[in-house]
Fold:
Amino acid sequence: MNLLARLGAVALEQFRGWGHAVFFFLDLLRAVPASLRRFDLVVAQVHAIGNRSLVIILASGLAVGFVLALQMYYALVTYGAAENLGLIVNLSLVRELGPVVAALLYAGRAGTSLTAEIGLMKAGEQLAAMELMAIDPKARVLAPRLIGGIVSMPILAILFSAIGILGAWLVAVKLIGVDAGNFWSIMQTGVDVWRDVGNGVFKAAVFGVICTVVALYQGHETEATPEGVAYATTRTVVISSLWVLGMDFILTALMFSTP
Structure:
């Protein structure tokens, strides 16, 4: 009975936490219209979240393109299908690797930054001071960051895929010697803008919502201590990564299960 009681208490605590997170997300959505009227705040957050993540996104995309071209070429040449290299690389990047890897990098770079920023504001009682001045901190501080993350994440995923394709072209055409015309032509004929690229951008937008909301929630609910903020940033990366990987499977099954 003691074991069952402890299991029940843990389950109730988990459900309570999930319910609190859902209400937090709904409060953020209600604060979005008010934040849109302060467009300067949104632009500042797009710059802070997106522009400052460009270096790691572009460098990682280029490296992934290099490696993907090499690995795919060695696999395809065994079966005499090396002419399909451009198509395989493009589909892999725009459908999966672009949105997923960009989201994981976003969670590690921008997500931890958001959590630490909000956590430090809470520790310094800045959020409480806003409430005392009748200013909603969700509308003034949190919602602009949510909008900035939703806007930035698809752009970062597109740039990741684009630079990855460029890196694959450099390796395939300039290093290995694959025909450049074949590399681009089969890519143009085999990739559908709406089904492949559009679904990849939609995935990135969903991942942007997930990573940003998790980061803001962890920062808002952290203990107002240095140890609490440090622990919250770790939770942000772990929870965001798990949610991104799990949601990627669900979205892929829904988007690409039928021809």
Summary: The mean pLDDT is 86.
